[in-house]
Amino acid sequence: MAVTITKQPADISWSRNPVKFEFHTDRVVQSPGRPVIFVLDFSNVENVSFNPPPPDLREWLIYSDWGFHLTVGQETIYFTCVYDTESDGFIIPHRVAEPEEPKPDWLIRVRDAIISAYDIVSQFNVEIGADKLIFTSKQDNESLVISIVNDDTFHAVALTVSQSATNTQYTPNLKIFCELLTVDDHGHDKAVISAALSPDLNGNAIWDFSKPLTAACLSMGNDRPDLYNVVFAKGKVVRQYFVQLTELLGDPQKAKFSLRSSVKTVIYGGLPKDKLSTSMYSSLAQADTIQFLRTSISAVKVTADQPNWLSWFNVGEDLTDVKVLIEIMYNDGTPYVFSPHTYDEVKKYDKLIIPIGLDQLGASKLYPELTIMNYTVSLKADGNLISNLMDFTVDQKYHSYKRFFLFQNSLGAFESFYTSGRKSSVYEIEKSDARIIQVNDFVLESGENIDFDIQLQGKEKINTGWKSKAEIRSMRDFFLSSEKLTLINGKWWPISVSSSSIEEFEDGNDLYALSFEIKIQHTQEMFFDN
Fold it and tell me: Cα separation of 226 and 307, whole Å?
């Protein structure tokens, strides 16, 4: 076998969440090593003959002193078995005379003494067999050369090396070369990024390419709607992609095996960290419908003249004759339903961008003598509801400081909101200055300081006005967005939030407000009032 794909993303996923492939190769080890196995035999420690024998041979044999030097690789350890005398080595316990302590029980204490005196368990597994301790190394390391030197021949611990160690030989220059490619509408492949992965010792490697894949999704733009025309569009941030693998190894390095993944689909956007285990379908589908791409699904408050958009992503099957339905409720209780647009065909993984502002749809002029209180947006195909019902409550109050903001939410869709609180403007000046030395008599009127490289940055402090807790909470997505705009004199201008912290206020009656500072994304170096 060779390299294989052990784990891959779902058929459809979010680009801003981890998009990971996991690979495995069985070529990491070129030739396996083997451990060293050696045996310390203690059977001769008390099986000694003396001529003539001591008065009490048994007691003498058990309580006599003996020792040995054990060398493991570069380490030499001195072990001694002494009775009532000092020792400069690690102590092995004496055996209590039989029948109190059989020799196998004593060997357990010997093993424990060796283990406690020297951290040998980090390198070896130790077993007891008959009168022997059997050591097997945990690593295949040929530098683990074993030898022993006994203090005397009458109490010799015998060493037997039953297997010497050899090193594991790893495949040289082993890499998994990965290429990420996208597929365009014409079936042509386009390389996005490549990486040469080094598998770990188990042969596993992981590649997360969510960031380059996100960039690929945005290569044709970020689905910002047509801001000045009513256009029922389709998104362009959906991409098909696949991964091509090539296994490289050897010296010189050569390609040995290639593998291609199945084609998958990704859309720009993402879910928060606590939702990463949720599939794309589960995050959008509910019953037999697919939710609009909004991070806050609760009822939304808008103004009649507020430009607004909804987006919808088809994670189901191909559809035809998909109608956008608007149901308006007037102040006298009269409902009115109309369809401003029908999509002839909506394929699987198509993204719809739908303008839904009342003025955008001309709904405010349908019955100008009546007041629109709320309205609902939905999608239907073949008479069946395919989206959730998106409810909008219309704020008909007059607001002197009304301001519209548009942003791209975490799911990659654009939505708007309005603020109604007071605002204040600030012009921040950045400049360089220098001092000019007058060489002749000092003339006060000529001055001596000059300014240059002067830049003007416009900033505004925005107050949202009092809103519900749900409305204020949903604005967090605005602050997290990298794409923000505000409407000034009929034109949408890109902005940044310059506040490092956002102030939230509460009036004690379940109404809340925010205060934050914004700045236009350009500086002025010259001025002409046009």
Answer: 11
- For 218-274, what is each residue's pLDDT tens digit? 999 899 999 999 999 999 999 999 999 999 999 899 998 899 999 999 999 999 999
Judged against a pLDDT cut of 90, whether residue 53 lies above it is answered with no
Rounded distance between C-alpha atoms, residue 121 and residue 126, angstroms: 7
Whether 379 contacts 339, CB under 8 Å: no
Q: Are residues 385 and 457 in the same domain?
A: no
- The rounded distance, in Å, linking the Cα atoms of 105 and 108 is 5
Question: Could you tell me the CA-to-CA distances from 448 to 244, 300, 436, 445, 454 in Å, in that order?
Answer: 67, 59, 5, 9, 18
Tokens of 144: 């683990």
Residues 157, 264, single domain; the answer is no
CA dist 290 and 316 (Å) reads 8
Q: What is the biggest distance separating any 2 CA atoms in the chain, rounded to whole angstroms?
A: 132
Chain segment 385-441, per-residue pLDDT in tens: 999 999 999 999 999 999 999 999 999 999 999 999 998 888 888 888 888 887 788
- Asked if the model's pLDDT at residue 303 lies above 90, the reply is yes
The structure tokens listed for 118 are: 């020297």
- Please check whether residues 41 and 159 belong to one and the same domain: yes
Shared domain for 136 and 195, answered yes or no, is no
- Listing DSSP states for 332-379 in one string gives TS-EEEEEEEEEEEE-TT-EEEEE--TTTTTGGGTSTTS-EEEEEEEE
What is the token pair recorded at 301?
């408050």
Segment 442-468, tens digit of pLDDT: 888 778 888 888 888 889 999 999 999
Per-residue 3-state assignment (H helix, E strand, C coil) for 26-77: CCCEEECCECCEEEEECCCCCCCCCCCCCCCHHHHHHHCCEEEEEEECCEEE
The owner of tokens 């204490």 is 109
Q: What is the C-alpha to C-alpha distance for residues 342 and 340, in angstroms, rounded to an integer?
A: 7
Q: Which of 396, 428, 443 is the last residue of a domain?
A: 396
SS3 294: coil
Q: Is 22 left (phi over 0), alpha (psi -120 to 50) or beta?
A: beta
Residue 96 has pLDDT above 90, yes or no: no
The model's pTM is: 0.78
Neighbour-count burial for 80-91, b at 16+ CB within 10 Å, e otherwise: bbbeeeeeebbe
Return the H-helix or E-strand segment holding 129. Answer: strand 124-129
For residue 476, the enclosing domain spans 418-520
